[in-house]
Amino acid sequence: MTKIKQPIPTYDLNDHAQRGFIVERMDERTRNSEDILLDKGIHRDSHYIFTFMESGHVRMLVDFKRVEAEGPSMFCLLPGQVHQGLLMEEVSGWFVAVNTDMVPDTVRAVFEESLMEIQTLPVDESWTEQLNRSAETLRRCCTDDMFSDKDGILVIRSLLNAFTGMFAYSYSRNSGAEISNDSRSLQLVRAFRILVRKNFKTLKSPSGYAELLNISRSYLTEVVREVTGKPAQYWIHQEILTEAKRSLFFTGLTVKEIAYELGYSDHAYFTRLFSKLEGKSPSEFRVKNQKQK
Fold it and tell me: Are 244 and 282 within 8 A, CB to CB?
């Protein structure tokens, strides 16, 4: 893997899909050399990518971890995750990319609020057939006539929600994750974690998020700990730590440059924080992971 010299690039789905989502056969998609995952190199996306593979073999790096899938399987890439394609062999299945505002909260909760790492999971025969049928129906309805009609757009959105909902349901059944209900506490934690992902470079204290949510810091801390088992500050630090690891692993930026990118003017403080959270310094993390590539 060749490191990039600048901050990791982000691809926006709106540059390629005016309708807010893409649904394509993976085997047809890989014929387009301009859009193959392998050709994009190290990058992140601002949208969700739901991949459902019927057959084939895929290998990629996702947030400095090697991910591999073979045969009927499913995987979800979250907005902001850094990834790079390494191998695609005889791949057949579906690629569905969706802007975050078009993904239902219950679907987002399965992937964003799980305390487990997102992983590739096998798909059994019955769900392979259902997901395939759902994706094919969605694609067939994505015509100019349907998009030009108000009722047609409602049908398309319903079909898109059906596919992502089935994807999340099948994933949760296999992974042990749960589709969250809409209790007040869960809604609050969901809102908090969404805000953290958007603002962790500028807001680093629970007080700032409590203010955005119009609640007290003590109430935010209590609810977050009750729902997740971890304090609010933990989740802020996890976003900072993950983003730092991404830059250390995928880029050639110096520790000082990475600290600045993350909103720290004092890189020595950033180094101490990273070392405390990770148990090793940023430089030690970089050296160790270079040896493991």
Answer: yes
